[in-house]
Design brief:
single chain, 476 residues, 5-stranded mixed sheet
C-alpha cells in the first residue's frame, strides 16, 4: 500500500467514499439474500459468499483508512492486516466455488479475482502497479454490488421469498393469524388485523387474548355473535358476516395456533332468504290446510252469497220497474205483475247466466221500456272474469240508481290503460248524507277484492262509482 502515499489526499478520500457506497450496496444485498426462502445448500453458500464479499469490502476500507491516516500524520505505515486479508480471501474463494457449483453459474468465480487484490502476495508481485489493481478491484465490487442488488430485489418481488409470501398472504380475502400457544403472534395478514380492530377496537397484540375474546368477550358496538348452521359467526357493523375457526398445528416439538377468518356473508344472506321463504311457505301451508278443512263451509258460503246476489238482482230489477211505474203515476199492469210473480221462481232456478255483453244488452232493453236510458261507452275487458264482474256490477248500479236516486239516465264508461276501468254516473238525486253500504255495494266490493281491484264512491258534484282492476292482478 506504500504506493498510495504518492496520491493526493482527495483521491484517497474519493476511494474511501466509493468503498463506502460499495459497503452500503453489499449490505443491502446480504439483507435481500437472507430474506429469500432457503432452497438447498447452493443458495446458503451463495448467501455466505455475499457475507464474505462484505468482509472483503471492509478490508478495502480499512486499508484505505490506514493510508489516509498516514497521510494525515505525515509518516509512512507498512501494510497491515496480512493474516486477515488471507483468511478473507480464502473464505471468499471457498464460498464462491461452492456457490458456483451449487447454483451452476460461473459468475461467482469472479469474486475470487476481486478478492485476490487483498492478498499481500498480490501487493508484492505487482509492485508499483498495485494501486491500479486495487482501484480495479474496488470498481469491480461497485459494479457487481449494484448489479446483484437489482437482481436480488427483482427476485424478492417476483420469486418465492419471505417478502413475497407475506405480500401474497396480505392480498388474501381470508384472514390468517399464526401465534404461539403463549399468545405471541407469528404472522398476521392485513385482513385479520382489520377484523381484530373491528371486533375489539384495538390492534392485535396477543392471539390468545383475541381467541378468548371471540369466545365470550365483549365485542365492539355494532358487532354481534350469530349462529349459522352449527357454527358461531360474527356479524360486523358493515353488515359482513365472518366465520373464525382455530386450528392447532404441530411444529416439531412445539405447536402453534392458526386462526382463519372466512367471509360467509353470501351464505348468511342465502340462509336468511331461504328462512323467509320457508316461513312464507309455512304460512301458506297453514292457510291451505285451513281452507281444505273448511272447504265445505266455504263452498256453502259462496253458494249462499251467489244465491243472495241473484235474488237481489232479480228482485231489484222488478221492484225498480214497478217503483218507476208508480212514481210516473201509471197503473201497474195486473198481467205484468202476475208474470213477474210466476216467472220469479223459474228465474231463480235458472243457472244459465248470459254472457257479460248479453247481460248489458238485456239491461238496456229491460229499462228502455220504463224510459230509463242505459248508455255504455267502450268495450268490456278481454278478461272473462273481469268482464263478468263489471256486468254484474252494472246491473247493481242501474238497480240502485233507479231505486234510490230516481235516475232516468245512467252512463257506463269502459276503458283501460294499466288497469281495466269502469266509471258509472247517473242523473239521479245525490245522497243527502254519507252512504250506508248494504248488500249491493258490499257485494260490489267483494267482487273487486277477489280480482285484486278497488271500488271508489264519490257523491259530489255528481254521484259516481269508479272501478279498477290491475292487469297484472287479473292475469294471476
Amino acid at each position: 500500500m506504500a504506493e498510495f502515499y504518492r496520491f493526493p489526499q482527495w483521491v484517497v478520500t474519493a476511494l474511501v467514499m466509493v468503498t463506502a457506497v460499495c459497503i452500503a450496496l453489499q449490505t443491502l444485498i446480504v439483507s435481500f439474500s437472507f430474506r429469500r426462502l432457503p432452497a438447498g445448500w447452493g443458495r446458503r453458500a451463495e448467501n455466505g459468499m455475499e457475507c464474505a464479499v462484505l468482509a472483503a469490502l471492509f478490508l478495502f476500507a480499512a486499508l484505505l483508512g490506514q493510508v489516509q491516516y498516514g497521510l494525515y500524520g505525515g509518516f509512512l505505515l507498512p501494510s497491515a492486516y496480512g493474516n486477515t486479508r488471507q483468511v478473507v480471501f480464502l473464505l471468499c474463494a471457498v464460498l464462491a466455488t461452492a456457490a458456483a457449483v451449487g447454483t451452476e453459474l460461473i459468475w461467482p468465480f469472479f469474486v475470487i479475482g476481486g478478492a485476490a487484490v487483498l492478498l499481500p502476495l498480490t501487493e508484492v508481485v505487482t509492485g508499483t502497479a498495485y494501486p491500479f489493481f486495487f482501484l480495479a478491484g474496488i470498481l469491480f465490487f461497485l459494479l457487481r454490488s449494484a448489479h446483484v442488488c437489482l437482481i436480488r430485489r427483482r427476485e424478492l418481488y417476483t420469486r418465492l421469498s419471505s417478502v413475497s409470501v407475506k405480500e401474497a398472504i396480505d392480498t388474501l380475502h381470508t384472514g390468517l393469524l399464526f401465534f404461539r400457544q403463549s399468545g405471541e403472534p407469528l404472522l398476521c395478514n392485513r385482513r385479520m388485523d382489520a377484523l381484530a380492530r373491528q371486533l375489539t377496537g384495538q390492534p392485535l397484540r396477543s392471539g390468545l387474548e383475541f381467541q378468548r375474546l371471540l369466545e365470550n368477550g365483549q365485542l365492539q358496538s355494532g358487532c354481534v355473535r350469530e349462529v349459522l348452521g352449527d357454527q358461531q359467526v360474527f356479524r360486523l357493523s358493515d353488515a359482513s358476516v365472518w366465520s373464525i375457526t382455530a386450528y392447532t398445528i404441530p411444529v416439531g416439538r412445539r405447536a402453534c395456533v392458526l386462526l382463519t377468518a372466512d367471509d360467509v356473508t353470501a351464505r348468511w344472506d342465502a340462509v336468511k332468504h331461504l328462512t323467509r321463504q320457508n316461513e312464507a311457505l309455512e304460512q301458506r301451508g297453514r292457510e291451505l290446510r285451513h281452507t281444505i278443512e273448511h272447504l265445505q263451509a266455504i263452498c256453502e258460503a259462496e253458494e249462499i252469497a251467489r244465491s243472495k246476489g241473484r235474488v237481489h238482482d232479480l228482485l231489484g230489477q222488478r221492484i225498480s220497474l214497478l217503483l218507476r211505474a208508480l212514481r210516473d203515476g201509471q197503473q201497474p199492469d195486473e198481467a205484468l205483475l202476475m208474470d213477474f210473480a210466476r216467472s220469479l221462481p223459474t228465474a231463480l232456478r235458472e243457472d244459465d247466466t248470459p254472457s257479460p255483453a248479453r247481460r248489458l244488452a238485456l239491461l238496456r232493453e229491460t229499462f228502455r221500456g220504463m224510459d230509463v236510458s242505459v248508455e255504455v261507452r267502450g268495450a268490456l275487458p278481454e278478461n272473462a272474469a273481469v268482464a263478468d264482474a263489471f256486468a254484474e256490477i252494472a246491473v247493481e248500479c242501474v238497480t240502485n240508481g233507479v231505486r234510490h236516486g230516481y235516475a232516468t239516465r245512467i252512463q257506463f264508461h269502459l276503458f283501460h290503460n294499466d288497469c281495466w276501468r269502469m266509471t258509472v254516473t247517473d242523473n239521479g238525486i245525490p245522497p243527502a248524507g254519507p252512504i250506508r253500504e248494504g248488500g249491493g255495494i258490499g257485494g260490489m266490493r267483494r267482487r273487486m277484492a277477489r280480482l285484486g281491484g278497488s271500488l271508489e264512491l264519490y257523491t259530489s258534484p255528481r254521484f259516481r262509482i269508479e272501478l279498477s282492476v290491475p292487469k297484472e292482478a287479473e292475469r294471476t
